[in-house]
Amino acid sequence: MKTNTDHSDSAIPRRQFLRMVGGVGLTAAVAPGYCFGGPGRVSPGVLLEAASFAKRGGWVLDTQHYQQMGGCYLLAHGLGRPVAPAKSQISLPEAGRWHMWVRTRNWCPGNWEAPGRFKVRVNGVELATAFGTAPGWAWQPGGPIEAPAAGEVSVELLDLTGFDGRCDALFFSREPAPQLPNEDLVELAAWKDRLAGRQGLPIETRAFDVVIVGGGIAGCAAALTARSQGLEVALIQDRPIFGGNASEEVRVHTIGIPGKGSKLLSTIDTEHYPNGDALAKEDQKKREATMAASGVQLFPLHLCCGLEKVGDRIASVEAREATSGLLRRFRAPIFIDCTGDGWLGYWGGAQCRYGREARTEFGEAWDLHGDLWSPAEADGRVMGASVLWNSERTGEGSSFPEVPWARPVAKEHAAINGEWYWEYSANDLDQIRDAERIRDHLLRAIYGSFANAKRNPNHASVALKWVAYVAGKRESRRIMGDYLYTMRDMMERRRFPDAVVEETREIDAHHQLAETGSPVDFLSKAMFYKTGGMYYVPFRCLYSRDVANLMMAGRCFSCSHIGLCGPRVMKTCGQMGIATGYAAALCKKHRATPRQIGQQHIVELRQLIGYGPSQS
User: Fold this and answer.
1) pTM, whole model, 2 decimals?
2) Which of 87, 367, 547, 559 could be disulfide-bonded to 485 (CB atoms 3.0-4.6 Å)?
3) What is the predicted pLDDT for the residue at 565?
4) Does 205-358+474-609 carry CATH code 3.40.630.30?
């Protein structure tokens, strides 16, 4: 994948509603089949989605990979100790023999037992099959069960290992070999909706002044700012909590400078704790309280999955509630993409970039201590994602299971804690398409390195304390605006008449140590270039040049690969959120597009942010 490739689907017709799974659009007018999926296509039966389980026990709900595998799955993230069972009920319409199938994945196939094995107990009877052993996401047969009568049946997921077993759904069929959708994620989503009884339900539709998708620091800042100007604001977030990489699920402390937004950002940022530290929980409480009291309409655990476009404007977006699967539609004159992966821009047909530009395109060939910042030819390499982790000394002996499946990744590397440089990127992996595989590779690195460290008698009392299962991304898709920000803008500290963000942080590009001969591929190094002072990001980088009513804040703003390497940190992204939040208010006030705000009302926007008439 080349950096100049248009990272969007074919052009969207003048008026069409698309429901998105796997980055593929399905028009809303789905031909109705019969209630179990249509004659000749799939078999009748009863579906139990894992996300809807009444009691999750020790399993956690993973929503990160919905677009890649078609579900929100339960994950047995026990750090090597089996987690408590997840429990639920399902109603079977008649007595007799039923056949159960489980959609699951062996996340680490090889010549060893699958690390994510689990069993299923139905009405108190434990089935013999160990699930989580099939390659790829697939329906794995569990054999027959006997239902003595029609009605409620109890179902439990029994983790066997504590090593990240995963379950998307269970299907009960009277047929021993039913036809089930799997690879075609659009078909799978429609089938799940039919079986769950959601297909015919009316979609709740609400109107706002601005809809923001993505609840990281940039999204929260945009929402708080827009609400402070009296706008009706919806904030859609795919996780149960807000903060993105700063959340207690990822635990990266916020850095950069707050610029003119110090007062607002202080209500949602973090202390400078060690990455991965439990202090993130206290910052999370502060952030959640701020968002709850703000008057912003919050929609946590909602996955944006649809988009309606009229001409060159987004008319509405659709989001699916993770636990119920119900859809909600959000209309607004202005949308702000804070997803990090640039989903709204991508679906809306905006031109996007992914990867590294050739060093000649923007003159980003700066040589520092022999390091060239950009390749001779454009490629698909980006900065990687990190999974943070740590351990503790218990004061007594602590064992850890054998993990032969982790050693091909960890090799002989030994560690008892991880930091930001536990990072993974590879030429053949896409940070969006392969997000689950990237996260899983880092889990293997962590478990294998910790097992190696446990061979040392000095670490006999060390136990894993916390390992993230939500990966912290640095870079993926970037939406193009009227200006594309580059390394030269930072190095030369260019001043812009429409500057709305300021930063002093060094340019910080990450590369995998494997590129310099390291035996392991999950550690990175950073290259730094100090700019020597303040540099600025113009407002023209914060709205799409192709979609008239779309702005973006955060790491999906308009920039080159190296142009991202300074402003990508969270306080700077928060400044972008503030700028777009104020711009949304001016769009309403002047009945204008973001581009018109930048061209005709930029002085007013800058004054709202806090710039005086003579400040650049």
Assistant:
1) 0.94
2) 559
3) 97
4) no
